[in-house]
Write a structure and sequence with these properties.
alpha+beta; nine-stranded mixed beta sheet; 26% helix; binds flavin-adenine dinucleotide; binds iron/sulfur cluster
Length: 576
């Protein structure tokens, strides 16, 4: 098939995957071949572990129900080497849900535990009209962060893991859940993935087959674009009458700095993005002060871009590197040293894009359920709250001997999660028309706090026709000291994917150049390559260096599919 620049959208080249056929298993293995647990939680991030901890708190006061759940009342299945290893966030957190979850722990103790770095007392928001200029503006409502706490979600997940283990949870790290087990229209557990397969799927010397994990209730807490969540949404038609989900991609670095930053900083562009709606670029940045265990001053800096853009050469990684050359940033980072890098996508559709949150035998929590307010870039507190509410609904149903989990939906709707997301339900959609056209409309929606009626609609990110534009021409050349290329960045994530692991990325490999360029520039880990001798126009063959993948999930939004790699593969984030 030949192509014209700007003619094709990624959705015309869907990935070779049939999620229901491949990722739903219709019969549990026999009793002696499977593990039985009370509640299985897929994903040991903030949401899944909040669910585990809340459930264990409730069960601790009810030994009878605990007893009925058997030897393993709560199991958490996490694909990273340790909980926290695959978690990344900005992360300024609204504190209330975490205060509710660990009521006995003060905020001072959060800091002593090493996952929190202080309350926000000062903040500033800037426009960056050019590569040299910055203009401070009054803080718009979504950026008001007084009283919030700067944290590290990877460190918080490690703390939550420790608490859950002390409470009696069985945490299976380095384990991917690869299939959802559905019997007679009800989720009855999950299957863990095989380990020790070679490039072509052949069993190697250390091969270990996966196991069915039977559970009375299953919680899908897989974060952004969950593998089983996607299959469940199709199997149970959970996205019926909802808007499609849309996505953003964030790249983050942590720097050790010479002098402490005394405030939170956000910038709203337009530089280094293009203002013209032709490019479809919307994004922004953050710079937050942090500390490490030794009390040294750090800053978290990141760039988030909506995956709605049309210029195939848009690269969140390169935009962040370029942004660091702005004098506003240089002044903060100069003389410092980069100590961490990571990338992750987040769901941006908000209220209207949230799928139905329960199905027979299972519920969705956190990013799996799309519970993020991307106007304010806030999801952590919703993840914690939804995990807690899921635990309470599951506990009530176990106590009653019922299997009905549908009460969870209403609990979310009535909670701070439902209320906050309702207020900004129509605020981001206007931005799909570009910053100039959509900005004022979006502002109006925010100021009205959801009082304006109506339901604004979305289109999917992969339906946007792509063109090979000139955004790439403005990227800085990495110097290896202050600005970095993708591969040296992946290197510092501790990425431990085996060179002979099977490929977990599904894409069509023979595609028009603008689609291949989209993937090449978008991937923060440099996974997609176009051969140097490929034709300038027309179709090209894409090379997939999947062992570099940091499992950010962006490819799933723009025409491909991230499936679960072997447990233990991927990055090992410590402070992101
Ligand atoms: C760049 C960026 C900046 C952000 N900034 C902020 C901010 O400043 N403030 C804020 O409040 N929110 C912010 N957010 C949003 C917030 O970080 C997320 O909403 C939240 O961290 C998601 O938590 P989660 O537990 O739902 O998912 P995750 O943290 O993604 O956890 C999911 C876990 O499940 C595991 N997993 C997934 N699938 C499987 C499987 N099949 N088998 C086994 N394990 C599996 C993953 O390895 C992971 O550990 C930001 C997000 C991003 C990406
Ligand atoms: S290959 Fe991996 S790191 Fe690259 S975009 Fe896809 S999911 Fe993200």
């Amino acid at each position: 098939m030949s192509s014209r620049n700007g003619h094709h959208a990624p959705s015309e080249f869907p990935p070779p995957v049939d999620s229901v056929k491949e990722f739903i298993k219709h019969e549990l293995d026999s009793e002696d071949e499977r593990i039985e647990v009370g509640v299985a939680i897929v994903g040991g991030g903030t949401a899944g572990l909040a669910c585990a901890n809340r459930l264990l708190q409730l069960l601790a006061d009810d030994p009878e129900t605990m007893e009925r759940l058997g030897e393993v009342p709560v199991a958490v299945v996490e694909k990273a080497k340790t909980c926290g290893g695959h978690n990344l966030s900005g992360a300024v957190m609204r504190p209330k849900p975490l205060e509710e979850l660990f009521g006995e722990l003060s905020r001072e103790q959060w800091r002593e535990q090493g996952f929190a770095f202080g309350e926000v007392t000062k903040e500033a928001v800037y426009l960056t009209p050019t590569s040299k200029l910055s203009v401070r503006i009054p803080t718009p409502p979504p950026f008001k962060n007084h009283g919030n706490e700067v944290i590290s979600v990877s460190a918080l997940a490690r703390y939550q893991q420790q608490q859950a283990e002390e409470g009696g949870a069985y945490i299976l790290t380095e384990t991917s859940a690869t299939q959802l087990v559905v019997e007679d229209g009800r989720v009855v557990g999950v299957r863990s993935g095989d380990k020790g397969r070679g490039k072509d799927g052949e069993p190697l010397g250390n091969f270990e087959p996966g196991t069915d994990i039977k559970a009375r209730a299953t919680v899908l807490a897989e974060g952004c674009w969950g593998h089983l969540t996607g299959a469940a949404i199709r199997e149970f038609d959970l996205a019926k009458d909802r808007e499609p989900q849309v996505w953003e991609l964030g790249v983050k670095e942590v720097w050790k700095v010479a002098k402490p930053l005394d405030r939170l900083i956000h910038t709203m562009g337009p530089w280094p993005l293009k203002v013209s709606s032709k490019y479809g670029q919307i994004g922004g940045t953050w710079i937050y002060p942090m500390k490490n265990a030794a009390g040294e001053d750090l800053v978290s800096i990141g760039f988030v871009v909506e995956l709605e853009y049309a210029d195939a050469t848009t690269s969140a990684h390169d935009l962040l590197q370029t942004f660091k050359t702005h004098p506003l940033v240089r002044e903060i980072l100069e003389g410092g040293e980069r100590i961490a890098w990571g990338a992750k996508a987040l769901p941006g559709g908000g209220y209207w894009s949230m799928p139905k949150l329960s199905m027979p035998g299972a519920v969705l929590v956190g990013d799996s359920g799309g519970m993020v307010d991307t106007m304010a870039l806030k999801g952590v507190h919703h993840c914690i709250k939804s995990g807690m509410l899921a635990a309470e609904s599951i506990y009530e149903s176990l106590e009653r001997g019922s299997q009905d989990l549908s009460g969870y939906e209403q609990a979310i709707e009535d909670s701070s999660v439902g209320k906050e997301l309702w207020e900004v339900r129509n605020a981001r959609q206007p931005l799909q028309k570009g910053l100039l056209l959509g900005g004022p409309l979006s502002g109006l929606q925010q100021v009205s706090k959801g009082k304006l009626p109506g339901r604004a609609d979305w289109h999917r990110n992969d339906e946007k026709p792509m063109f090979v534009g000139d955004t790439k021409d403005s990227y800085v050349k990495p110097d290896g000291k202050y600005t970095f290329d993708k591969l040296s960045s992946v290197f510092i994530t501790g990425n431990a994917t085996r060179d002979d692991a099977p490929n977990h990325i599904r894409i069509q490999k023979h595609v028009p150049r603008e689609i291949a360029e989209t993937w090449r520039w978008m991937c923060p880990a440099g996974v997609y390559e176009i051969p140097e001798d490929a034709p300038e126009h027309g179709d090209v063959d894409v090379i997939v260096n999947y062992t570099n993948c940091v499992q950010c999930g962006a490819i799933t939004a723009k025409g491909g599919r991230l499936t679960t790699p072997e447990g233990g593969d991927g990055p090992l984030y410590q402070i992101l």
